[in-house]
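User: quick one
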Amino acid sequence: MMGGRGGFTILLSFAVAIALMIVSLPSWIAWARPDWLALALIYWCIALPHRIGIFSGFTAGLALDVIRGGLLGQYAAAYTVIAFLAIKLHRRMRHFPVWQQALTVFLILLLGQLTILWIKGIIDEPVPILYYWIPSFTGLLVWPVVFIVLRSIRRNFHVQ
Amino acid sequence: MATDYKKDYLTGLRTTLSAALYPIQVVVDLPRSGGNWLKETFSSRQQLQEENASLRAQNLLLETRLQKYDALLAENNRLRELLDSSSKVNEDVLIAEILSIDLEPFTRRIIINKGDIEGVFLEQPLLDANGILGQVVSIGAFSSTAMLITDPSHALPVQSLRTGARAIAVGIATGNQLKLEHIPNNADIKIGDVLVTSGLGGRFPVGYPVGTITTFEIDPSQPFAKVSAKPNADIEHVREVLLVRNKPPTLNIEHTNELSEELSGEPTHSIVDDEQDSTVIDTLDNQDGEQ
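Assistant: Done. Structure below.
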């Protein structure tokens, strides 16, 4: 999956996304941290659905679970859902203008967060309900940036 | 997920994966550690001398106190022997540094730079210079994750230093605070009371400071008072933590004895801590029982 044709670039972009997920931020802004890893995953699913898919999503989620010390598998489950939806919608999303893409991404992120909320609910992990959804909104706002940056990376490094 | 939640088969997998992902954590922590390094490298000679002098003065002060402490320790041991109970005072500690990394939002966990290799073990208590900080919840080869006492899923058995009343201190999802659960409205609690660990859970050493009561609100329509405390440990700013090495001994055994006594239907309040204020404990125990 990762050999040749820019596999290293994809891996590196995921590593950077994970790093962005754990960079220490002041607590008032940490709640609004967009889910960078999910955004990167969605982008690669849309751009290269034949290479990045549900399994990559699962692996990335597992890595995030381990590195953030949550319940092993909650992000893996959520990212599986996200990757599935992104793969399912990739033909349509490629033709959308960026703002419409952002709205679709927002919905996908919401569904991903809902999965995690269910899991947290099952294991009785308390979650302040309103703050919890902020990352999806910030994800909506930063999607155009992520899209443009990753697209230029994909073109410059000939990832296909 | 269910396996991870209920059993510990997956600990090995988690340990391996976290060792593989440790480089990312180190890179993320780099700006802070690099900044520290730069500061130390380029601080002037005079600054260092001043710091040295002040440290020396502080050391002298601490040593003097330690002498007094030694005398007290001897006396304490002697008295304990008289009371025929075991003493456990020489806790051996390991110093670890916190990595500047954000974990799962809405939980209060930290990553420290000591792991399996340095002998960190699960449920190991974490202290800073001022009080209890948390406990280790998962271990990697080079790093481990600790849950702070302010985490919403953490509960810590405490007792009031003034009255000896016992309570459970639970973390809350937002902010650097603890709340005391199931405190009856007529409990003898004042703002400013110091809470220390009671050691009843068997995980934390006895008598370490935990926090100070900040609010005590009574709402007559509610069965319990609303009590919150501020942790003594400087949770927001601490950089270096102490890991207590040896597991607190003997207490577990006492605790199970006490439990079996409870199960066999004996009165619950005639237990080990005789010196405690029994009225408050009675009400507390009763309330707990109703829950």
